[in-house]
Amino acid sequence: MSIEMMLGKAAAQAIVGTERVRKVEQLLSKGNSTGKEALAGLQKLAVGDLTGAAGLLKGATSALSLAGDLSPKVGMITRNFDVIKGATSSVLSMAAGSNLPLVGAAGQALQGALKDAQAKFGAMIGLPGDAVDAVAQLAGVKKLSFGIDSAGRGTPHLMTMTANNGESFHFNLSTAAFDKLKRATRYKVASQERLNRQEAQQAVSQGGETITLTGVIFPRFGNGMQQLETLRRIGDKMDPVLLTTGYGKVMGRWYLHGIEEEQDGLLHDGAPRKQSFSLEFGRYGEDRKNV
Q: Which DSSP string do the residues of 86-144 spell out, in sequence order?
């Protein structure tokens, strides 16, 4: 596995772990309505995610020695470092506020692995570990605060889609930029007819959410014709993906439901001058019994 893949997967696991810790915190705030076994199981999964992220970071740190020239990869590496750093800070804050010692220990282990990785990377590019953040800014990573719902600091991407195996697709002007995002949230409410009275309404479930992205790709202006094929390859795996906005908000895990493509302005060999696309994502619906 390449360094980029290991770091991408570590960042994805760190964010998933952060999401699970946040759910534990939310469930604890509800008092005794949640069983101890369910809370313990969710906390165990969160610790596993954070521990796995730390292990991947250690593996990436070891592999740095054999990486060769890292100059072309500085932006990608520092962005992943930045995401992991933000996730770790959020986890440690929530662990301290909700008295979760196991989560806190896993967060500290991840923080230590991150510092080691940054120090090794900094040494290889000729900078001390605490100067890696400066490199991140030079690579285009703008700083934003990392709250409970954030993925780290802003990036020059509109959105990043991360698969479970660490593969990432960045929506931007160099790949597939969308110009419209539509998000729909539905609530299941059942109607019951009543004699000589208005219908009775009963809330059944939270329903689901969908996100639809629409945009245009111009292959001849540097984007190439493989962007949608890359998205199809990720979708073919039939696994949930993590969506993170360019300004740092973690939107959680979603399934890629479908990809629509329309080609216009065909050249003599059939190559399109313009590819209009629409992507639809459905909320994964992760809960205590399906994590």
A: HHHHHHHHHHHHHT-HHHHHHHHHHHHHHHHHHHHHHHHTTS-GGGHHHHHHHTT-B--
